[in-house]
Design a protein that fits this description.
Elements lengths: L8 H23 L19 E4 L8 E5 L1 H11 L8 E5 L2 E5 L2 E2 L4 E5 L3 E5 L8 E2 L15 E2 L3 E4 L2 E7 L2 E4 L3 H8 L11 E4 L2 E11 L6 E4 L2 E11 L16 E12 L4 E3 L4 H7 L3 E13 L3 E5 L7 E21 L7 E22 L17 E22 L6 E13 L7 E4 L1 E9 L12 H8 L9
Length: 466
């Protein structure tokens, strides 16, 4: 496992990574891998490919210094001929394989052996620049184009990125420095981005030091992310973990994520571009994940959510040492909706704010957004939460012209650090609560909302006491 970072920060980042892995092993030892099946999408069984080649056969050198972009590109081009013959596997053996950006193909397995490390080059000139995503209209960070991600897929079917816990290391330290110093002309690249693709599996891998987001399925369907470890230093800017974006039938399970911003973040486009593109994120199941983020949220919705987010089930979340546990974020001009969300069985420890809902978060891509496009935030249920060493229970702040409704809290016990601080802050929200300690705001005492809580948790009508 190779980490290339700047100066005196090396020890700090190594210690953070070792702590993450130790905690991850601890959680795995207690919980084990989940036997819960994904609620959404079809079962994407990993079958052996009938054809396999090694990256060594295409002249690659695993010394961490030789650039292997052409070797990856040539290998994948060769494997195209097997697409109609059951597909093929590209095998990456132990070693450090330096490369620039490369594209995958359909019916392909990219397999990283134990001690295999794919390293993203730190040479800026070797990162191609591509058009912005249509649902965003510009780069996430800067207007205009964006750098292409390290591993890409476009309009693909049946793609597997897996291994024997091999590693994909984006060597993002230089990108974080460039971003902080405003030295970039385009938005930073992600580590893995699959666009407009279906039947995707990403499993049994470690992802390190992404320049920006780590795993970004956008306009995709039938996506499984399982048994992955994702790490970026706490001070790395906006290094989100897994970001389902305008995608459907997604399962994220049995994984450990520690990053600089949001660990899992659901999105669906930005203002007028997301509204026009109109592709929601829906049918997402998140189960048995360990989440840590010093400055972001463990589980986040938005703030770019203009295409809509709905039908999300998250359960068995283990949240540690994080700024915010669960956060819903949007703002006036976003449009879209976040609705039909059920979050259950959550453990939190050493979290600054357990629950946050805000209608005043995030900027706009340009001046063409419609200020009258109010988001619809409704039908969000959080149940069975135990939190220890929590600073603030919740801050629920809706939009005055479009209040958040049917916010349902049940069976929540939070141990607050200081009784002198306000445990809950609420405005422009309404909903229902039961068995919540400390007692939430009076805004959450609307009896009519309880039926919506029941329907989310028991869609087949088998309601029981919340």
């Amino acid at each position: 496992m190779l980490l290339i970072v700047a100066g005196g920060k090396l020890m700090k980042r190594l210690v953070a990574l070792l702590l993450l892995l130790a905690l991850s092993d601890g959680v795995k030892g207690i919980e084990g891998e989940s036997d819960v099946q994904c609620k959404y999408g079809k079962d994407l069984t990993l079958l052996p490919r009938p054809h396999s080649v090694s990256i060594l056969e295409f002249g690659a050198e695993g010394d961490g210094k030789t650039l292997n972009t052409l070797a990856f590109q040539n290998a994948i081009f060769y494997l195209r001929s097997f697409a109609d013959k059951g597909g093929a596997q590209l095998y990456v053996p132990a070693g450090s394989w330096l490369t620039g950006s490369f594209n995958l193909i359909s019916h392909l397995t990219l397999f990283l052996e134990k001690d295999a490390v794919i390293l993203g080059t730190q040479d800026l000139s070797l990162w191609p620049v591509v058009e912005p995503l249509p649902s965003y209209g510009r780069g996430i960070e800067l207007p205009g184009e964006r750098y292409r991600s390290l591993i890409n897929g476009h309009q693909l079917k049946d793609v597997v990125i897996t291994g024997n816990n091999g590693t994909i290391d984006g060597q993002g330290a230089v990108w974080w420095e460039w971003s902080s110093s405003h030295s970039l002309n385009y938005s930073r690249p992600h580590l893995v981005e699959l666009e407009n693709s279906t039947d995707i599996v990403i499993s049994n891998l470690t992802l390190l030091n992404s320049p920006a987001w780590n795993i970004h399925p956008v306009y995709c369907s039938n996506v499984q992310v399982q048994n992955v470890t994702i790490h970026a230093p706490s001070d790395s800017p906006y290094t989100n973990g897994v970001v389902p974006d305008s995608s459907s039938d997604v399962c994220i399970k049995d994984s450990y994520i520690s990053v600089g911003h949001d660990a899992i973040s659901l999105k669906s486009g930005w203002d007028e571009y997301g509204i026009a593109f109109a592709k929601p994120t829906l049918n997402v199941h998140i189960v048995n994940v360990y989440l840590h983020t010093t400055f972001g949220s463990a589980l986040a919705f938005g703030s770019e959510m203009s295409g809509g987010i709905s039908d999300i089930h998250a359960e068995h979340l283990h949240i540690r040492d994080s700024f915010t546990g669960i956060k819903v974020k949007t703002t006036q001009g976003r449009g879209g909706y976040i609705k039909d969300i059920a979050i259950t069985n959550v453990e939190m420890e050493d979290v600054h704010m357990a629950l946050a809902l805000t209608g005043h978060c995030g900027g706009h891509p340009d001046d063409h957004f419609d200020p009258g496009a109010y988001p619809n935030i409704t039908s969000i249920t959080v149940k069975n939460v135990i939190g220890t060493n929590i600073s603030i229970a919740g801050n629920l702040t809706g939009i005055h012209q479009a209040p958040f409704t049917a916010i349902c809290l049940s069976n929540i016990s939070l141990s607050i650090k200081s009784e002198s601080s306000a445990s809950w802050v609420c405005s422009d929200v309404s909903g229902f609560s039961q068995s919540v300690s400390p007692e939430p705001c009076s805004n959450l005492q609307t009896p009519d909302s309880s039926s919506i809580c029941f329907s989310l948790l028991y869609p087949n009508g088998h309601a029981e006491a919340l």
